[in-house]
Task: inverse folding
């Protein structure tokens, strides 16, 4: 289909009406059923078919929703993930379930070889994991989980046990992954940033020779349409990067792919603020961490803010230049409390303008520029809307006083989640389901928005912002 035909089809799709939204009670029950069905006893899989193991940032988002159903399960979700942390502090992006057949997911444990290839980096011996990481939203999740039931958290020593692990995780990112030397953390694989197939990676990936197609089998195509998933060429490059990193025994340093990403670093900064609050809760001072978060915010602005684009852009460390693609990643720093007012104003303008169209042409935040040449409303991270990024943008809008826009986005998330069967991601124009259904973080974050926007007590209101400053 040519570009004109695509735009005509999308205009027609925008006229499709939603079914009436379910009641709050019905949505709660349906979301809870998804999370119950994906619970393994110690953690929650993203989906039973496509993603049968534990994923790092998925579990953080899942815990945020689980706190409204069972604060104990929410704490257990994070504790299970952190138990697989490596000695160097990294939290691996997958913790493998040994009862799942090897051919159910690729790359499988025998590809990563964590216990042998990762031995010098302190990979655990009793559990198999991947060797790469995902965005550091975990301290923010831990703080929100604690706030859901402080009495239970204190009785179980939840924060006392997770705090040193979270601190080690941040040390790893701030030291081992400061590949650009400016204080920001870098990602060394597209899977680490979480938005795996973003057009932002096209130029950096072009340097990477793909692994031979015969050297791996794509299990993801057993569960999703090929036209919605990464191409074989891109997947071959993902495999090559991961294999090369493994063969270097997961030692960090410059390689063919090294990128400073705005969303990854914004989540690190938000979690630094959260870690400061955790330290304060435990009787220490969080002043140093808040100060570090403010310094990181300054570095983020200096390194990745692009006034002409009206948003943050990725920086390719291999050539030192910004990557000129507009992705939802560049809007996520709206989450941060310390941004200059002119930047937050510009971000809201970009969010609601022609490139992302929120509240005008789109119901949810597209993952990529509507006007970009690579835009596709259904292909993985190249245009569809995702519920975790919508949740982050909603928090950012609310934190910066954009209450009406935040309310509208929250309502769109709830309606889209229910109407799509809690889909993995959706068409940003119509809300039509894409990817897996019964997806855990979709259900979890819908629960969080449902409870946070319908119960306006002081504890919830406190959770809906990301301010600096210590609080008890």
Result:
């Amino acid at each position: 289909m040519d570009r004109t035909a695509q735009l005509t089809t999308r205009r027609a799709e925008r006229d499709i009406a939603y079914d009436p939204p379910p009641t709050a009670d019905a949505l709660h029950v349906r979301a809870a059923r998804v999370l119950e069905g994906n619970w393994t006893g110690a953690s929650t899989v993203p989906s039973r078919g496509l993603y049968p193991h534990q994923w790092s940032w998925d579990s953080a988002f899942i815990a945020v929703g689980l706190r409204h159903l069972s604060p104990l399960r929410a704490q257990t979700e994070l504790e299970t993930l952190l138990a697989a942390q490596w000695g160097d502090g990294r939290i691996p992006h997958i913790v493998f379930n040994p009862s799942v057949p090897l051919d159910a997911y690729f790359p499988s444990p025998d590809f990563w070889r964590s216990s042998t290839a990762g031995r010098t980096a302190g990979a655990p011996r009793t559990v198999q994991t991947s060797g790469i990481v995902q965005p550091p939203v975990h301290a923010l999740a831990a703080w929100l989980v604690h706030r859901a039931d402080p009495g239970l958290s204190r009785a179980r020593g939840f924060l006392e046990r997770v705090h040193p692990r979270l601190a080690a995780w941040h040390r790893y990112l701030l030291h081992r992954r400061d590949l650009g030397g400016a204080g920001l953390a870098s990602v060394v694989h597209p899977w680490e940033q979480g938005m795996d197939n973003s057009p932002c990676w096209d130029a950096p990936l072009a340097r990477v020779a793909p692994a031979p197609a015969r050297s791996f089998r794509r299990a993801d195509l057993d569960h999703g349409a090929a036209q919605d998933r990464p191409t074989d060429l891109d997947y071959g490059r993902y495999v090559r990067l991961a294999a090369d990193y493994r063969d270097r025994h997961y030692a960090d340093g410059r390689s063919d792919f090294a990128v400073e990403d705005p969303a990854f670093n914004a989540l690190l900064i938000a979690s630094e603020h959260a870690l400061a609050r955790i330290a304060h809760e435990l009787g220490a001072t969080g002043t140093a961490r808040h100060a570090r978060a403010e310094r990181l915010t300054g570095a983020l602005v200096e390194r990745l803010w692009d006034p002409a684009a009206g948003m943050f852009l990725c920086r390719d460390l291999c050539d030192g230049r910004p990557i000129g693609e507009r992705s939802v990643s560049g809007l996520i720093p709206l989450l941060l409390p310390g941004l200059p007012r002119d930047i937050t104003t510009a971000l809201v303008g970009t969010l609601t303008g022609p490139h992302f169209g929120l509240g005008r042409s789109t119901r949810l935040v597209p993952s990529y520029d509507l006007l970009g040449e690579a835009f596709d409303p259904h292909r993985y991270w190249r245009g569809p809307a995702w519920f975790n990024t919508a949740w982050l943008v909603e928090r950012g809008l609310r934190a910066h006083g954009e209450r009406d826009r935040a309310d509208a986005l929250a309502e769109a998330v709830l309606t889209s989640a229910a109407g799509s069967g809690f889909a993995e991601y959706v068409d940003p124009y119509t809300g039509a389901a894409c990817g897996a259904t019964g997806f855990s973080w979709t259900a979890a974050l819908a629960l969080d928005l449902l409870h946070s926007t319908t119960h306006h007590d002081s504890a919830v209101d406190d959770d809906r912002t990301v301010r600096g400053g210590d609080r008890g």
